[in-house]
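Handout, page 2. Input:
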Amino acid sequence: MERDNVGEHKVCPNLSCLKTCYIVNDDDESPSSPPSISTTTDRKIEFQDSAVRWIMEESIPFRAVETKSFRAMVNTVEENESEHGIFKISRSMARRKILNLGLLSKKATKLELQNYICAFPTDHWTGPNDETYTTLTCHYINEEWEYHSCVVGFKVFHGQTRGQDCGEDLFNIFDDYEFKSENVTIIVTDTTASMITFGKTIRNERKIEHGFCVDHNLHRNCILAFDDKNLPGSERR
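Output:
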């Protein structure tokens, strides 16, 4: 990383803000204020970090930073010819920066969750491209009684979605984050038949409780309640 007269520049691992942070040197007399963006390298890093934040927060395709319209817009902020090329970012660079931030965020999340008792809803579904997706979210309350949640797993699921397979996939994520079974209150799923086996798997192998989603139960009951064929006298129609 580049250094200036204040300290070392690095990117904050918090994906929600993507702000620029600084480690201040011990001999600095005014550590409360960040350094001004003065050098070419600093201006380039600031632009790249801002562009990555824009891509993530607005769900922009990576290719957008290489379009002619984006380049034309960026060129309007270059103050002089010496700055030509400073405000430039490629799709591969954006992807690499986001992946690196994801790794840093994962490490920070692992450290954050070690001291909390958590609940984990999980789900599998098939997208319009016929790929199966899986997600796992973590919910907990901190020492100040503030509610927090975060995504700890979201990926394309390969293989069969039997209860046993889903259980093994969950264990892989838990092992990756080093979650302890005693710190898990419950795993919540929908009411599909395979989740019965899933519940037995996590109870038998990890001593973790399993519960069905209340919303999903309510939804299924409402469908049955408002189905005409279930109404009294419907058999005479």
